[in-house]
Design a protein that fits this description.
- By secondary structure, the chain is of the alpha/beta class.
- 39% of the residues lie in helices and 10% in strands.
- It has helices at residues 17-26, 41-53, 83-89, 92-108, 142-158, 189-194, 198-203, 233-240, 255-258, 265-273, 287-294, 299-313, 324-342, and strands at residues 6-9, 30-33, 60-63, 65-67, 70-71, 113-114, 162-168, 209-212, 246-249, 278-280.
- An 8-stranded parallel β-sheet has the order 9-8-7-6-3-2-1-10.
- Helix 4 crosses helix 5 and helix 4 (92-108) runs antiparallel to helix 13 (324-342).
C-alpha cells in the first residue's frame, strides 16, 4: 500500500516491460503524463488504459493542461488560450466553456485529473520576473483569481474531472524559477493572509487536491521549503485552513529540491510535512528508492494519507468512450473558442522561459 503515496511520471509513448514491471511492483497511486508521452489521441488513450491495467484499483492519471504554453497535448489537438489570455480577453461564460472543453478533452484521453487551476496571484506580470508563471495566472488581484480560477475549477469538476489547485501557499511571490533553484520569499504569515492565501482558503473546499510549492518562506520556516515544511503544510494547510483533500508535492525532480535533498529523504520529508503523494516526474527509476524510504514513516502518517487518497480515488469518473468523432468535435470547439477570444492572433514563436513550457 505504500506505493499509493507515489505519483510517477512515464518515460515514453508506451510502457516498456521493465517499466510495467516496476509499476506492478510499486503500485503507485498516480501517474502524470507529459508531451513526451503523447503522439496521437489513440496512442494516449491506449497508454492510459495500460496504466490502469497495472494497478489493483484505479490510479489517478494527471496532466498539466492549463492552456497556452502549458498544454501537454499541443501536438495532437487544438490549444486553448492561457489563463492570462482568458482573464484578459474572455468573459466569464467563455472561461466556463473553456473549462468544460478542457475536461472533456482530457477524459477522452483517459486522464482523470488536471493539475490546475493555478491559484497564484501574478505579482510579477509587468516586471517579467522568470518565476515559471508567465501567462499561467488568472489575474493580479485576489478577486480576479477567485472569480476566474474558481469558475474554471467548478466547471471542470462539474464535468467529472478531478482538479488540483497550485501552488500552495504561493509561487506568485517568487522572483525565480523553482525548476532551477529554490526561490526564497521574505514575507510573514500575516503578509500571506492579506492576499496570497485568500484564493486557497476560499477555493480549497471545492478542490480534490492541492499542489505544494517549492518556495522557501524563511519568516515562517527558516529551514525548509514549503513542500517539505510541517509548519506550512501541517500547520497552515491542514490545521489553520482545515484542508481535507489530497496534498501533492510539486515535482521533486526540480532543481529546488533535487539540488538540496537526496531521493528517499525528499519523499519521506514530503509526507512527514503533511503531503499525501510525492510527485516524481522524470527520475522514475528511483521509485524503489522512494518506496523504501516510505517504510521509515510512522504508521499514523501513512494511514492518514491512505485515507485521503482513497476518498479522492472514489471520485474518479469512468473514462469517456473515445471516438474519433468526439475527439474532432472537441478540438474543433477549442479552436473556435480560441478564435473567439484571441481573434486571428497566433501564438508567437518563443524560446521557453521555463522548463514547464516544454515538458
Amino acid at each position: 500500500m505504500l506505493g499509493q503515496l507515489l505519483f510517477l511520471g512515464v518515460k515514453g509513448t508506451e510502457l516498456t516491460k521493465e517499466e510495467a514491471a516496476l509499476f506492478k511492483k510499486v503500485q503507485p497511486g498516480g501517474y502524470i503524463l507529459f508531451t513526451r508521452n503523447i503522439v496521437s489521441a489513440e496512442q494516449t488513450r491506449k497508454l492510459t488504459n495500460d496504466l490502469r491495467s497495472l494497478t489493483y484499483d484505479d490510479p489517478i492519471i494527471a496532466i498539466d493542461n492549463e492552456g497556452g504554453r502549458v498544454w501537454r497535448t499541443k501536438e495532437i489537438g487544438a490549444v486553448p488560450p492561457s489563463a492570462a489570455q482568458m482573464a484578459d480577453h474572455a468573459d466569464l461564460s467563455q472561461i466556463g466553456y473553456c473549462a468544460d472543453l478542457i475536461a472533456q478533452h482530457l477524459q477522452l484521453l483517459g486522464i482523470n485529473m488536471n493539475f490546475g487551476p493555478v491559484l497564484d496571484i501574478d505579482h510579477h506580470k509587468e516586471s517579467g520576473a522568470q518565476n515559471a508563471l508567465r501567462g499561467r495566472c488568472y489575474g493580479t488581484s485576489v478577486n480576479e483569481v477567485l472569480d476566474k480560477a474558481g469558475l474554471t475549477n467548478r466547471r471542470m469538476r462539474k464535468q467529472g474531472l478531478l482538479t488540483c489547485g497550485k501552488h500552495f501557499p504561493s509561487c506568485g511571490l517568487a522572483a525565480n524559477d523553482p525548476h532551477h533553484e529554490l526561490p526564497s520569499v521574505n514575507v510573514s504569515m500575516t503578509d500571506l493572509q492579506k492576499e496570497d492565501l485568500i484564493p486557497y482558503m476560499t477555493l480549497l473546499p471545492e478542490m480534490n487536491a492541492i499542489m505544494t510549492a517549492h518556495v522557501r518562506f524563511p519568516q515562517i520556516d527558516p529551514d525548509l521549503p514549503a513542500t517539505l515544511s510541517p509548519k506550512i503544510i501541517r500547520g497552515i494547510l491542514r490545521d489553520v485552513i482545515g484542508f481535507k483533500g489530497l496534498g501533492i508535492t510539486d515535482d521533486l525532480d526540480m532543481g529546488a529540491i533535487v539540488n538540496h535533498y537526496g531521493r528517499g529523504a525528499d519523499v519521506k520529508m514530503a509526507i512527514e510535512a503533511g503531503n499525501d503523494m510525492a510527485l516524481i516526474c522524470h527520475e522514475t527509476e528511483s521509485a524503489e528508492v522512494a518506496y523504501k524510504a516510505l517504510k521509515e514513516l510512522d504508521s499514523w502518517m501513512v494511514d492518514e494519507s491512505l485515507e485521503r487518497i482513497s476518498k479522492q480515488k472514489a471520485k474518479i469518473p469512468i473514462p469517456l468512450e473515445f471516438t474519433q468523432k468526439a475527439w474532432t468535435k472537441n478540438n474543433d470547439a477549442i479552436a473556435e473558442l480560441r478564435k473567439e477570444v484571441m481573434g486571428d492572433e497566433v501564438e508567437e514563436n518563443h524560446i521557453a522561459q521555463s522548463p514547464v513550457e516544454d515538458y
